[in-house]
């Protein structure tokens, strides 16, 4: 038959919609599947067995499982910007137009050049990274690593920005349930009936878990009917939320759970305005883990041959998807449950070639099944698999007693028993315990509020799953305070489960433990010989279990083999630490909408929109966007614009939005006393109507923040902080107020967002202000002296706060108006200032003028400087205690050779000074031993017509006039600079007082 | 992780900021450099129950004293930290 004909599709049965055919492409070829298929089941239906090449050896690989534990069938799903590497074909829901490509092959899946890696297999053994390519050292980066990176690996990332949206959401409930198999549905029924708010998460797109593949009879009904009834009942409950395509992947403190909902992964492209995936944080009083169990392989030579498949997966493909992975199936099992696959194969009209059972005996029922089905039961183990073009061809069997047999088959189902999914219950460093009767690890306790039920708890029988699930659901609801009538428990028979542990069949040829990472049984043995016996060492040395499947099908087998070679028991050997997430979660989902321009919140100043109209260039300062400068037509660069703005302020008048400063109202009878304790200088002595510059230290004596604080009333101060520290200073002051000084009667209110604040500076400031402020307000030097601060009335009646403070060194005021008037204030200043040539200026001009005045800012308040370093040591009061006082007196913080703020200018006036340049004495070799400090802030000073700067330099203030080297290896520069007074402009301050 | 703020109720971790051990008390003004040095720098590294400062900056701005087990992350008590770090008179 031709491809696309679904030659391996059964004529009847399966949970597929045969009226809804879907076309898809795999490796460029067209195929058909049905709605209800996964990509894997559609490939099976189309007879595709080879779906990828392995990680290290490029061995041909097929489909091993039918779920999220799949190690082999990884594809690149979709194309272009939506390409998703390492997507499990076994969980990718088929949709019309799906495109997928196999991975890690070149030039094609059938002919892969890199499969020569198999010939070099000896060098790819465990720990090969650490020991093979160590010499000569320079070869590593140049040759070995690039070659290995090209040869080993999985899919390719899209390499471009993801065009889709991801969402994050919170949910709260009484009981969250992971898994909707018999245990999960029973738990949901019990909890839901009792009135609990329930969230049921199922990673599949259909509810039912193993019931979908294995069927059974519950309450006398076929499984499918029982599921339909249960789902209908749950859907009708208003407080039960069923979340399909949602994997509960992690558990966090305080009953918080992480879940990933694949909202639109089953569509080619998410519908408009919808997200692709949603990350849920679910807060639940109780959690029932009904995540089931994972069938485990048996490790034997050739166990990675396409056509070798887990027995339970084979049943899934046949029963759920009506797709036959093989026509003539052999079964290799060590337990009763595996036989179900033989039953399923016969029922589907397939041939059973043989059952190879490692147990000493087989039940009479199965014996008669074999004789009826006309196939032999071979007691023994699979020792080798002979591969033809289409995968499995012939299977060699080592019979118990030593004889050999051969079985011809095109598919080999393997069942080594079941491992409960112990991930979720173990994520808080829980160690599962070993149960000999099922030869598996089961949960031993769980994080608070969580309980495992059903197969996840080692109860494999259908009846037991229903019982445990129902009881766990009822108990969880009860614990959450819900006491409604839970009705009757669903009932089913329990199947017998008998198993003889078998992990590894010795033989010739590669026997894979971890198929995704190409770790073989001999790698595990090698690790043991080389001393890596601890399971944690084994894992890291061999990379066993470290692939995207996190070893769901390989970890237990790996440690069982390690146990065998070390002569210890499996529980003695132990498990590695389990860590979330249970399935890979896209980084995009964790980021949600917080990407690109929404990476963080954006804060706009009150005059932002006006500034944007003016064509301002904005700069990000923290969350804020601030106008950096206002370019005008004809200006060739930022420097020209900034220089113009500075000159306009120094000769006329300009204004700048300084609303980003942190602003805190301090109220209360003890407000002054409080400020005395948090600032190094006194504020209780500040007169009402005056402002004062204040400096805060950390308790370790280092400068924390600075700003002006004004006393607006006897019991009311208005404190400002730097833009950067606004939130932190508030937090610090609240700590001081609440925790350290509770006896003080004082209140703090953050008013940063309430006030729009503008600096108005320049000799014509008063002229401009007179147009804004009510004529009754006295703005003269006598009526409003330097460092005055008080409320004023504006023309039109609005109340504003006016502060006569200056950062620029010019005659200046800062005016605060309620934030909603900020934009109007900017427009008004432009209008009223027109006759005076008013010029808006940005943060760059602000910075130039503060450097010209020698004011310290962020680059000097850098978390290492003391008040003394900044030249502000004299501000430290000796009459009071304050935060940081004692530690500031430590010897190392007061020695005379500390690096202190000093002015710096190049001796060549045409030279540009750069911040970051290191200060080296003349005649000394640049290097750490001669490094005396560095340049912290620089600007081009329009007043001095040259580049100037501030620096932190050893004994800088004592060295005015000395010429040293500014050494800048980063930019390859070295030039002479001279130390000078840090106040370059108007050192006696006449202009700001005028 | 979730903290039951005594003022706001149970809230998610993201609303809170951690500071550290709530045991050290700010020494009195005359306690001397050694006492302040201990207060600023010396902390016990406790495996077990510790009381520590958390700031509810995303809520009521209260500083809280949270009693937490560092081994299990179990929170056994949350109370306002008012005065918890104040210098003891005569200390």
Task: Give the SSE map.
The complex is a heterodimer of chains A (994) and B (91).
Chain A: E1 17-26, E2 29-35, H1 39-45, E3 52-53, E4 60-61, E5 74-77, E6 84-88, E7 98-102, H2 128-131, H3 137-151, E8 166-178, H4 182-193, E9 198-201, H5 211-214, E10 217-218, E11 221-222, H6 223-236, E12 240-243, E13 246-252, E14 256-261, E15 277-289, E16 293-295, E17 308-310, H7 311-320, E18 328-333, H8 339-347, E19 351-357, H9 364-373, E20 377-388, E21 391-399, E22 404-408, E23 411-415, E24 418-420, H10 423-426, E25 433-435, E26 440-442, E27 450-452, H11 462-479, E28 512-514, E29 519-520, H12 521-529, H13 535-542, H14 555-566, H15 570-573, H16 587-591, E30 603-604, H17 608-613, E31 617-621, E32 624-629, H18 638-651, E33 654-657, E34 662-667, H19 671-678, E35 691-697, E36 703-713, E37 716-721, H20 726-740, E38 747-750, E39 755-761, H21 765-772, E40 789-793, E41 799-803, E42 812-818, H22 822-833, E43 839-840, H23 843-852, H24 885-888, H25 891-894, E44 899-906, E45 918-920, E46 933-941, E47 946-954, E48 963-968, E49 973-980, H26 990-993
Helix pairs in contact in A: 4-6, 4-11, 7-8, 12-13, 12-14, 18-23, 21-22
Chain B: E1 2-5, E2 9-12, E3 17-21, H1 33-41, E4 49-55, E5 63-69, E6 75-80
Antiparallel strand pairs in B: 1-2, 3-4, 4-5, 5-6
């Amino acid at each position: 038959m031709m491809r696309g004909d679904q030659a391996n599709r059964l004529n009847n049965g399966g949970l597929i919609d045969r009226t809804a055919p879907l076309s898809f492409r795999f490796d460029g070829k067209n195929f058909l599947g049905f709605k209800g298929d996964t990509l894997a089941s559609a490939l099976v239906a189309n007879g595709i067995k080879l779906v990828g090449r392995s990680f290290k050896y490029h061995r041909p690989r097929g489909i091993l499982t039918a779920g999220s534990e799949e190690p082999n069938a990884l594809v690149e799903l979709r194309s272009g910007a939506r390409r998703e590497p390492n997507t499990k074909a076994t969980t990718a829901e088929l949709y019309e137009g799906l495109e997928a490509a196999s991975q890690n092959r070149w030039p094609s899946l059938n002919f892969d050049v890199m499969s020569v890696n198999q010939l070099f297999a000896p060098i790819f053994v465990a720990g090969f990274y650490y020991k093979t390519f160590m010499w000569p050292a320079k070869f590593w980066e140049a040759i070995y690593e690039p070659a290995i990176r090209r040869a080993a690996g999985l899919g390719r990332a899209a390499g471009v920005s993801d065009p889709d949206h991801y969402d994050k959401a919170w949910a709260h409930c009484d009981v969250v349930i992971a898994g909707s198999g018999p245990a999960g549905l029973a738990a949901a029924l019990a909890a839901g009936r009792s009135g609990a708010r329930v969230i049921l998460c199922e990673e599949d797109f259909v509810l039912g878990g193993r019931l979908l593949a294995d069927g059974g009879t519950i309450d006398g009904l076929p499984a499918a009917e029982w599921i339909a009834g249960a789902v209908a009942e749950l859907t009708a409950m208003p407080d039960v939320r069923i979340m399909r395509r949602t994997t509960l992947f992690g558990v966090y403190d305080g009953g918080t759970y992480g879940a990933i909902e694949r909202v639109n992964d089953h569509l080619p492209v998410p519908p408009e305005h919808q997200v692709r995936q949603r990350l849920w944080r679910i807060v639940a009083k109780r959690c029932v883990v009904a995540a089931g169990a994972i069938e485990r392989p048996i490790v034997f030579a050739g166990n990675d041959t396409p056509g070798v498949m887990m027995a339970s997966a084979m049943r899934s493909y046949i029963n759920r998807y009506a797709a036959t992975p093989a026509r003539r199936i052999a079964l290799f099992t060590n337990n009763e449950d595996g036989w179900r696959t033989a039953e399923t194969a016969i029922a589907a009209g397939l041939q059973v070639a043989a059952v190879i059972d490692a147990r000493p005996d087989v039940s009479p029922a199965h014996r008669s099944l074999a004789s009826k089905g006309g196939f032999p039961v071979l007691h023994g183990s699979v020792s080798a698999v002979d591969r033809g073009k289409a995968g499995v061809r012939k299977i060699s069997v080592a019979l118990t007693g030593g004889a050999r047999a051969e079985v011809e088959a095109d598919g080999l189902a393997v069942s080594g028993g079941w491992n409960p999914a112990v991930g979720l219950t173990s994520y808080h460093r829980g160690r599962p315990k070993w149960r000999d009767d099922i030869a598996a690890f089961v949960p031993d306790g769980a994080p608070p509020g969580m309980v495992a039920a059903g197969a996840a708890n080692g109860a494999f029988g259908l009846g037991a799953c229903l019982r445990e699930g129902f009881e766990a659901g009822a108990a969880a609801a009860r614990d959450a305070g819900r006491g409604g009538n839970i009705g009757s428990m669903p009932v089913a028979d329990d199947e017998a489960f008998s198993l003889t542990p078998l992990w590894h069949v010795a033989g010739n040829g590669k026997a894979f433990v971890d198929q995704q990472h190409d770790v073989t049984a001999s790698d595990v043995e090698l690790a043991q010989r080389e001393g890596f016996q601890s399971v944690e060492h084994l894992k890291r040395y061999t990379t066993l279990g470290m692939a995207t499947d996190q070893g769901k099908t390989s970890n237990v087998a790996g440690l069982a083999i390690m146990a065998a070679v070390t002569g210890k028991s499996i529980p003695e050997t132990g498990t590695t630490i389990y860590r979330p997430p249970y399935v890979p979660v896209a980084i995009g989902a964790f980021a949600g909408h917080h990407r690109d321009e929404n990476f963080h919140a954006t804060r706009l100043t009150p005059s932002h929109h006006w500034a944007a109209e003016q064509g301002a260039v904005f700069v990000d300062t923290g969350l804020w966007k601030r106008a950096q400068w206002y370019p005008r037509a004809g200006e060739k660069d930022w420097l020209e614009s900034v220089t113009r703005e500075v000159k306009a302020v120094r000769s006329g008048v300009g204004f700048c939005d300084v609303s980003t400063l942190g602003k805190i109202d301090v109220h209360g009878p003890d407000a002054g006393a409080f400020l005395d304790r948090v600032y190094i200088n006194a504020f209780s002595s500040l007169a009402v109507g005056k402002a004062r510059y204040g400096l805060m230290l950390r308790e370790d004596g280092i400068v924390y923040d600075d700003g002006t604080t004004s006393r607006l009333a006897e019991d009311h101060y208005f404190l400002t902080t730097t833009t950067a520290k606004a939130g932190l200073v508030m937090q610090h002051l609240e700590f001081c107020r609440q925790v350290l000084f509770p006896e003080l009667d004082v209140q703090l209110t953050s008013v940063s967002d309430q006030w729009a604040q503008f600096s108005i500076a320049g000799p014509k400031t008063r002229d401009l202000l007179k147009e804004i402020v009510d004529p009754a307000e006295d703005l003269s030097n006598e009526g409003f002296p330097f460092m005055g601060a008080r409320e004023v009335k504006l023309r039109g009646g609005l109340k504003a706060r006016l502060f006569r403070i200056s950062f620029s060194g010019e005659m200046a005021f800062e005016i605060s108006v309620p934030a909603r008037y900020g934009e109007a204030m900017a427009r008004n200043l432009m209008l009223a200032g027109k006759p005076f040539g008013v010029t808006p200026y940005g943060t760059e001009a602000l910075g130039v003028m503060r450097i010209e005045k020698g004011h310290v800012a962020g680059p000097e308040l850098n978390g290492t400087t003391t008040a003394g370093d900044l030249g502000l040591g004299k501000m430290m009061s000796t009459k009071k205690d304050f935060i940081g006082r004692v530690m500031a007196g430590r010897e190392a913080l007061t020695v005379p050779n500390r690096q202190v703020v000093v002015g710096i200018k190049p001796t060549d006036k045409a030279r540009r000074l750069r911040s970051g340049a290191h200060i080296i004495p003349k005649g000394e070799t640049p290097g750490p031993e001669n490094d005396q400090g560095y340049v912290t802030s620089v600007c081009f000073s329009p007043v001095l017509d040259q580049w100037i700067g501030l620096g932190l330099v050893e004994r800088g203030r004592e060295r005015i006039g000395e010429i040293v080297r500014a050494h800048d290896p980063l930019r390859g520069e070295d030039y002479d600079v001279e130390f000078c007074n840090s106040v370059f402009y108007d050192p006696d301050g006449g202009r700001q007082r005028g | 992780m979730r903290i039951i703020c005594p003022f706001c109720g149970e809230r998610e971790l993201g609303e809170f900021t951690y500071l550290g051990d709530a045991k050290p008390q700010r020494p009195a003004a005359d306690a001397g450099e050694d006492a302040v040095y201990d207060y600023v720098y010396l902390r016990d590294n406790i495996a077990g129950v510790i009381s520590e400062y958390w700031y509810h900056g995303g809520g009521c701005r209260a500083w809280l004293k949270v009693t937490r087990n560092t081994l299990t992350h179990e929170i056994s008590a949350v109370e306002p930290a008012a005065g918890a770090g104040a210098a003891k008179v005569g200390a």
